[in-house]
Amino acid sequence: MRVPSGEHTKQNGVDVGNERRGGDERIPVGVVGTGGMGGMHAYCLHRKVAGARVAAVSDVDADRVGKVAEECGGAAVFGDAVEMIRDGGVEAVVIASPDPTHAELVHECLRLGKPVLCEKPLATSPEEALGIVEAEVEAGRKLVQVGFMRRYDPQHVDVKNVAASGAIGEPVLFKGWHRNARIPAGVDSGWVVINAAIHDLDSARWMLDAEVREVFVRGLNTTGSSVGELDLQLIQLTFADGRLATIEVNVDAGFGYEVGVEVVGASGTAYTAPPSGATVRLDRGFTQKVDGDWLDRFEPAYTIELQEWVRSIESGGPPSPDAWDGYASLVVAGACIASIRSGKPEAVPVPERPGLYAGEATGVTR
Amino acid sequence: MRVPSGEHTKQNGVDVGNERRGGDERIPVGVVGTGGMGGMHAYCLHRKVAGARVAAVSDVDADRVGKVAEECGGAAVFGDAVEMIRDGGVEAVVIASPDPTHAELVHECLRLGKPVLCEKPLATSPEEALGIVEAEVEAGRKLVQVGFMRRYDPQHVDVKNVAASGAIGEPVLFKGWHRNARIPAGVDSGWVVINAAIHDLDSARWMLDAEVREVFVRGLNTTGSSVGELDLQLIQLTFADGRLATIEVNVDAGFGYEVGVEVVGASGTAYTAPPSGATVRLDRGFTQKVDGDWLDRFEPAYTIELQEWVRSIESGGPPSPDAWDGYASLVVAGACIASIRSGKPEAVPVPERPGLYAGEATGVTR
Amino acid sequence: MRVPSGEHTKQNGVDVGNERRGGDERIPVGVVGTGGMGGMHAYCLHRKVAGARVAAVSDVDADRVGKVAEECGGAAVFGDAVEMIRDGGVEAVVIASPDPTHAELVHECLRLGKPVLCEKPLATSPEEALGIVEAEVEAGRKLVQVGFMRRYDPQHVDVKNVAASGAIGEPVLFKGWHRNARIPAGVDSGWVVINAAIHDLDSARWMLDAEVREVFVRGLNTTGSSVGELDLQLIQLTFADGRLATIEVNVDAGFGYEVGVEVVGASGTAYTAPPSGATVRLDRGFTQKVDGDWLDRFEPAYTIELQEWVRSIESGGPPSPDAWDGYASLVVAGACIASIRSGKPEAVPVPERPGLYAGEATGVTR
Amino acid sequence: MRVPSGEHTKQNGVDVGNERRGGDERIPVGVVGTGGMGGMHAYCLHRKVAGARVAAVSDVDADRVGKVAEECGGAAVFGDAVEMIRDGGVEAVVIASPDPTHAELVHECLRLGKPVLCEKPLATSPEEALGIVEAEVEAGRKLVQVGFMRRYDPQHVDVKNVAASGAIGEPVLFKGWHRNARIPAGVDSGWVVINAAIHDLDSARWMLDAEVREVFVRGLNTTGSSVGELDLQLIQLTFADGRLATIEVNVDAGFGYEVGVEVVGASGTAYTAPPSGATVRLDRGFTQKVDGDWLDRFEPAYTIELQEWVRSIESGGPPSPDAWDGYASLVVAGACIASIRSGKPEAVPVPERPGLYAGEATGVTR
Lengths: 366, 366, 366, 366
What we know:
4 copies of one chain form a homotetramer. Chain A has 2 domains: 13-149, NAD(P)-binding Rossmann-like Domain (Rossmann fold); 150-297 and 324-358, 2-Layer Sandwich (Dihydrodipicolinate Reductase, domain 2). By secondary structure, chain A is of the alpha/beta class. The first copy, chain A, has 11 helices and 15 strands. The interface between A and B is large, with 43 and 43 residues.
């Protein structure tokens, strides 16, 4: 049921027709969730993506969704995500609602044949993600893109390109670091893996273009909380062909937000440079500012991710990263959680990749 | 007269109606010139700017203009710029045609009351630019933005923000460097000032928020050509209040394209960091790639420049940098050319700033 | 027996009296081994260390030792290291001969009560190193310094100082990388641990000021040799108090020689900056030169190591890093080799630290 | 007359014999002046230079000179510099007393035929410096080295080597920046030129290996003092062959001490990298520490300068930079002061270089 448009919205769900408006060839997109992440997607779509427009937004928080709708030039407002996805005026969907809702909403999009960009993680368990892979395989068509936005970050893409070019020889080792300023209250070690490390697990797979065979995780509680959850995790990966990765996931790093990768090849290495903000000489130091969070750091990546997603819909090209990437990263994440519990290296049981995904690399070099 | 649409265009000028199409609220823009610079503007408008669309393009080169029109989703094609500017389907104009055409085309836009983004230089002489300022003053309204895109480059904006914040004390010295890989054949010392140094003269004015009082230029021919034109120019500026600037303009630097600025304040300095592409360790070196030209280096700046220009049209806000900036930079450029000829410091005769521009800073801090 | 002085020496063993010469208060040092490493020590002692002089050098290679003796202003020449150590004209000893000779020569110095700076590794096994620790404990006096020169490298010292100052909070994670251009022919995985990784194991102990409890090593042969030895090793350490380390040892990195460390604290991190050689803009890149090997990279560190060693002899202060550091690093190295063989994490059996070493930190903050 | 050795000295002037002591072949050096600069020289000679020893020190401040003598292992103490220079136990001299004393003390050394390292400036006027050049020419022998220590700074040497190698093409432009944290009270514009800018004028001559033909200086008082002296000076140089330089001399920069140079060649550039201290991520920033003053920044350079000076005495090689460099830099400095007064570009009257200096480059590439 459509919610009545509140005082903050100029236009309600009724305005979303089942055909594109007049001569406007832009793809009408519906955005599920209008929190920090969903708000960022809606803002970028409205302001920085040329071939699409925000046709509708949905959220259970009427106040929040109304504000975002207004900022996007009067998008239709829905309280129920499924209803919005089914609306004829919505042709493609961005999912940025809480993690437990992802899988079911993606299935709804698949049933309707609507392209969907789903925030990470694709699901809350490998099994749930496998269900999405199987649904796509059955339909014989890839409609799902997973929100691993680092694959569109110019710095990451630069490193991937160097690695893939052969310039530094065969890539043999991936090194990742991922630091958040502060951990949210009440999260546990598994949350750190599923919500934070999942990005790094995908990066490692993408950069080395291979699947993981073994994981070993050691962690530490650096906050002094009595709970003992591991906000610092040191993850060591071995790939199917013996190549290696080491990842620092550090969700209470204190100083700010920072993400970096280095790919070590047989004859050289390539790594992301520090952010290129102004350097300031002051008070006996040379200082470059560090970003506060991922929305600051990856704003250009989110924009390019959406631009490329819209372009792939226009052109009918396959989305990337795809549901298989969403699934495989969750399988590795599951093994990481097992290793935290067992205190030992754990094997990673990745099944055979279906033919639908076989022709695609795990990553996109742009 | 409209040119017939060639084989490269799906749509010709006839399709440009005098009203916005259907429900499409995007501003229809006409782009004059489809060479490297105009093509870049059209591409960015079409792909990366949400509130506008490329409605028409004009060029005397029918082949080139046709291709750009097609890439922009079938824009209308014109052989004559004035005809396109006058077309009812064009509500705002980007001018990227050869320098000698700028002033007259801007005047045409002013006569029609259409907002215009004109590439630098605004005109080919200070006198011609003053005519535009006077036309705006007479109309009592600012419609002209000048394409000093560095004012929208995130690195430059960062430095400007630090300088304007007071963090480094009063800014007392501007240092700029501007290096092109190769000089085009056949250009002279004046061309280097008017086409290349003009950006740096604007940067200095913007960063220090003041007008120049004196210039002193020494130069060198580094290419060994017998002509003796100065491809390397070292420009020293004194501002009205005694503050200083030094600028290296080096249009045959050989190694690649690089632009940087440093603002020295009374208690610290701020400068643009090197580009943040991947760092590669290879062959006994750590290397970061340098851009090849300004289209590579400033692509994000051109995009933001257009996004902000469109937003200012939507909101009715004043354009920035404005015609006064275009004029004042040409006055300084003229004094630089005089200094090259005389071999001495030369005074810069900047007239009183009209009230229309008085309330505006020379730059925009975003 | 002393070898006769060859044509390359101006002065032979006979000249080494059992008292310091005339009014020369400099400590007469004997250097064992005149290969690359011993030659570097002799050169630095002769040219850059003010309170000592090279009184004698020994090597089985008469030609090589003669040249070094001559370059050091005519030092006495010995073919037999023990004979030189016992000579009355030698008051302190530097050992830079092949690894298997280290322990026995150190014991000889201890028996004579002569201070000794021994290159790493202190011995070829933990058991052999323990014998040295026990000999010092029995003598009740520390005479042995181990050649972990990174503890005197200004960049490493800077990081240690920041970590120890508390500025970045409690240090919780050590990250090290150690890259050689090329691996020598014929070495095996154990050699990589004992000769290369040993430096990093000491760095980790020093930076975190703690002993290691568990190691896990995964490796890779990147050279395509059929032997299968691991020239790339990824070492994960857990310390007694749960803190962590990850080390990349990469002895066939191809591009050059590079060593770096980062200490991650609870609220910030500190890391060694890249070498500060000239940055060159050329050929579409900004490049900094990478060192070719450790003699290039750590020349200043070797000099300071010797200066501080001589100063500690003059002042009677304890040497650092000491025999315990030499021993403990070998215990960790042994566990690393065990982990390579077992494919599993291995516990590290470090015994109780004797009282002689108890009062000393594992590292020196300067 | 020798001062009696105070309580701070173990040994007085009487101990300085007129022959080297016993078998000690080290060169006995006398240091004039024991303030910050002289104390640094004495310390480096005593601790870090192998072929020399501090035989004597002189200063009118008995307390200060006594302390330095004691720290240097009991050097002889003199209250009168000339008496010390004449002492038979002193074979080479370092002059670090106040500027007005330099020329006369250097003449004393020349009369005695003793090698002398004189701090910059060599004299207080070009005329006075010319007297030293003429005295050397008459003696037919170069004994004077001037303390332009940057010529021994590894970072500067790296840049010089790249420039001289031809790798970046013909050097065409020198850029220097020189920033002190705070200006001493009571100094005037001329002092800034003679004491601070003199280093940069020498750097420019050295890097471009040429003499200056014209200077133009504009300056600013950034401290708000009513005196109006120019603590910020922007110096533009033209060389005899038309090549260029720009120098920022900024003696009240506030944030710390920093010196850098860039040489722009016809096909590339080379510049000194920032200091390579630990980088610290903390409080939303990446920060590298800036040095506090020249003694911090150039300590390695001072050490190498002394090592090379001692080596040149041992080998009989010519000192570098020499008296001509000391003289020529003062001629340029004089023209800078004239330009400050006239507000115009000023010609630089450098006379013909005498044959004694003709065979030497203006700089040393090491």
